[in-house]
Design brief:
- With 531 residues, the protein is of the alpha/beta class.
- It has 19 helices and 22 strands.
- The strands form seven sheets. It has a seven-stranded mixed beta sheet with strand order 16-17-15-14-20-21-22.
- A hairpin with a 4-residue loop joins strand 10 and strand 11 (193-194).
C-alpha cells in the first residue's frame, strides 16, 4: 500500500483509457505495471439513418465518467486525490470516419468500423493500390463520400480516428500511433509512414475534383511506440477531469487502435506470435515474418505499435447475438422468480456448451447484427436454423452460437494457415468471450488448430495495453524495443493458462464450418426478405 501511494505521489503511474465498442475503460497502473484503480462507462452504438454511430456527447460523457470512477477509487483505496500522473495514453476502436473543418467542427456524424457502406470504394481502391482496403478503413469511407458527391468533403481539413480525435482535443496534436494509422491508410513498413506511392495514386485519382486539400495534408502524423506525442493541455485537463484536480503538462504516448493495444496486453508484438480479441467483433492478429504472396480481401495488413507488419482477420460480428440470447435466458429466470447474476448465467451456459456434440448436432446460426465483409453480407440478420433431424438441446444451442461467433474468423484464418503457410508459435486470447474459464479458449483452439493461452490480465484488455504503452514511453531505456520491454519488464511475472487444440473439436469445427458456408444463402435470403 505504501509503495503504491509513493508511486501515485511521485508520478510513477500510467493511465490508459480505451474506447471499446460497448465499454469505455480507464486503468491506472503502478511502477510494476499492475492495475491499481479503474473506472468504466457502458455505451452502445446506434443505427441512425442507416449509419452506425456514437454521438460526441456520448464520447465525452463516457470519458469523463470512466476517469472520475478511477479517480474516486484512488481516493477511496489510497487516500490520495489524483493530481499528477506519469503518462497517459488513449486508444479506441480502429478505422471509421471522423472529419473536421478548419474550425474543428465534426462535418458528419462519426461513422464507425461497423458500417458496411463503402463497397464501391473498397473495390476501386484495392485495385488501384493492389493492396487490400477493407470497407471499414478510413480511406474507404473518405473515397466513398467522394463517390457519393457528399458536400462536406470540400471542407475537410483533418481526418482521423476516434483515438486520434480524443488525443487532439486533449493535447492539440494531430497525431496517431502507427498501428491505428495503418487502419486509416496503408503503411510502408520500411519508412514507418504512409505509403507515398499510394498517397500519390489517390491524389491523382481524385485530381479532377479540385479539392483544396491533398491527402497527406489532412491525415494525422504517424508516430511510433515510445515517442512522446504531446502533453495534456490546460483545456484538456479540464475536459478529462471535470473536478479540476488533474494538472496539465502530463506527457501522452501516441494514440493507438484497439488491435495494437490488444497485441501489447497479450505480449504478442514479436514475429510469429498472435492474439485474438473476441468481443462485439472478433479479430486475430498474426505478426508476420514477410509480406503475403497475394492480396486477400479477407486479410488486412496493419502494423504493431512499433511498426511491424501484421496479418489481421477481422469479423464485424462476434458476441452480440450470444449476449442477446443470454439476456433472454435471464428474463426467463426472472419470470420464474429466480434472480440470477448475469455473469453466472454466462458461466452456466458457456460451460454447458462443452457438453454438446462436437459439430453442434446439425444446428446453425449467424450472429450477424451488422454486415459481414468476409462473407460478403451487406447487412445483418441474426438467424438460427435447424432441420427436424438436428440434435436440438441446450448444450448444442450454446455450442453453435459459440462456433458461429467465430465462423467468419475461421474463413480468414484458413487462408493464412493454408494458402500463405504462416507459422505461429503462440496465440493469446483476450476479450469477453474468454471470461468463462476454458470455454472460449477451447473453441478458439479448434478454430486455430493451435494452443490458445489466456493471461490473468486478459480482463483488463486494451486499457491496460495502452497504459503499458504510456509506461514504455516514459520508462524505456535507450534503444530498448517494445518487445524487449514487454518481455523483460512486464510479462516476467504474468502467467497464462494454455488450452491445447482437441483433435475431435478441430474435426467437429471443420464439419460445422462446411455447414456454415453452405448456409450463407439462407442468411442472404433473410437480408433480402426481412426489411
Amino acid at each position: 500500500m505504501n509503495l503504491i501511494k509513493a508511486d501515485i505521489a511521485n508520478s510513477r503511474t500510467a493511465l490508459g483509457i480505451e474506447f471499446g465498442s460497448t465499454r469505455i475503460k480507464a486503468v491506472l497502473i503502478d511502477s510494476d505495471h499492475s492495475p491499481i484503480a479503474s473506472g468504466s462507462y457502458e455505451w452502445e452504438n446506434r443505427l441512425e439513418e442507416g449509419i452506425w454511430t456514437y454521438s460526441l456527447d456520448d464520447i465525452w460523457q463516457g470519458l469523463q465518467i470512466s476517469y472520475q470512477e478511477m479517480a474516486v477509487e484512488v481516493k477511496e483505496k489510497y487516500g490520495v486525490t489524483l493530481q499528477k500522473i506519469g503518462a497517459i495514453g488513449f486508444s479506441a476502436m480502429m478505422h471509421g470516419y471522423m472529419v473536421f473543418n478548419k474550425d474543428g467542427e465534426l462535418l458528419v456524424p462519426f461513422r464507425t468500423w461497423r458500417n458496411s457502406i463503402t463497397e464501391q470504394a473498397r473495390k476501386e481502391l484495392t485495385e488501384l493500390f493492389n493492396y487490400n482496403i477493407p470497407q471499414r478503413w478510413s480511406i474507404a469511407h473518405l473515397y466513398q463520400a467522394i463517390l457519393n458527391e457528399e458536400e462536406h468533403v470540400v471542407d475537410v481539413t483533418f481526418f482521423t480516428t476516434l483515438a486520434g480525435y480524443i488525443h487532439w482535443k486533449l493535447t492539440g496534436k494531430k497525431v496517431l500511433g502507427i498501428g491505428d494509422a495503418s487502419g486509416m491508410f496503408p503503411i510502408d513498413v520500411e519508412t514507418k509512414n504512409y505509403d507515398t506511392r499510394m498517397i500519390q495514386a489517390f491524389d491523382d485519382l481524385i485530381g479532377e475534383k479540385n479539392y483544396p486539400w491533398k491527402l497527406e495534408e489532412i491525415l494525422p502524423q504517424v508516430m511510433l511506440a515510445g515517442d512522446e506525442a504531446g502533453q495534456l493541455s490546460e483545456e484538456g485537463a479540464k475536459l478529462l477531469d471535470v473536478s479540476g484536480n488533474l494538472q496539465a503538462g502530463i506527457p501522452l504516448c501516441p494514440p493507438e487502435g484497439d488491435a495494437g493495444t490488444g497485441m501489447v496486453a497479450t505480449n504478442s508484438v514479436a514475429k510469429r506470435t498472435g492474439n485474438v480479441s473476441a468481443g462485439t467483433s472478433v479479430f486475430a492478429m498474426i505478426v508476420l515474418e514477410k509480406e503475403l504472396k497475394k492480396v486477400h480481401p479477407e486479410i488486412d495488413l496493419v502494423t504493431t505499435p512499433s511498426g511491424s507488419l501484421v496479418g489481421m482477420v477481422h469479423a464485424n460480428n462476434c458476441s452480440s447475438d450470444i449476449n442477446a440470447w443470454v439476456k433472454l435466458f435471464r428474463e426467463f429466470s426472472e419470470v420464474l422468480g429466480c434472480k440470477v447474476n448475469i455473469d453466472k448465467i454466462f458461466e452456466i451456459l458457456f460451460s454447458k456448451a462443452l457438453e454438446g456434440d462436437r459439430d453442434c448436432g446439425g444446428l446453425l446460426s449467424y450472429g450477424y447484427y451488422s454486415g459481414e465483409n468476409i462473407t460478403g453480407m451487406r447487412e445483418g440478420r441474426p438467424l438460427f436454423v435447424r432441420s427436424p433431424e438436428s440434435n436440438f438441446n441446450l448444450a448444442n444451442f450454446m455450442r453453435v452460437h459459440l462456433f458461429s461467433a467465430l465462423g467468419a474468423l475461421k474463413i480468414g484464418i484458413d487462408i493464412l494457415l493454408t494458402e500463405e503457410n504462416i507459422q505461429i508459435d503462440k496465440i493469446l486470447g483476450h476479450g469477453g468471450l474468454f471470461k468463462t474459464k476454458g470455454v472460449g479458449q477451447k473453441v478458439m483452439a479448434a478454430v486455430m488448430s493451435a494452443p490458445v493461452s489466456v493471461m490473468e490480465t486478459a480482463g483488463e484488455g486494451g486499457a491496460w495495453g495502452i497504459a503499458l504503452l504510456a509506461s514504455f514511453m516514459t520508462n524505456r531505456q535507450e534503444n530498448e524495443s517494445l518487445e524487449e520491454y514487454l518481455d523483460k519488464k512486464v510479462f516476467v511475472t504474468y502467467t497464462g493458462v494454455k488450452v491445447d487444440a482437441d483433435e475431435k473439436d478441430v474435426e467437429g469445427f471443420e464439419v460445422f464450418i462446411k455447414r456454415y458456408k453452405q448456409g450463407l444463402t439462407i442468411e442472404q435470403a433473410a437480408i433480402d426478405s426481412l426489411i
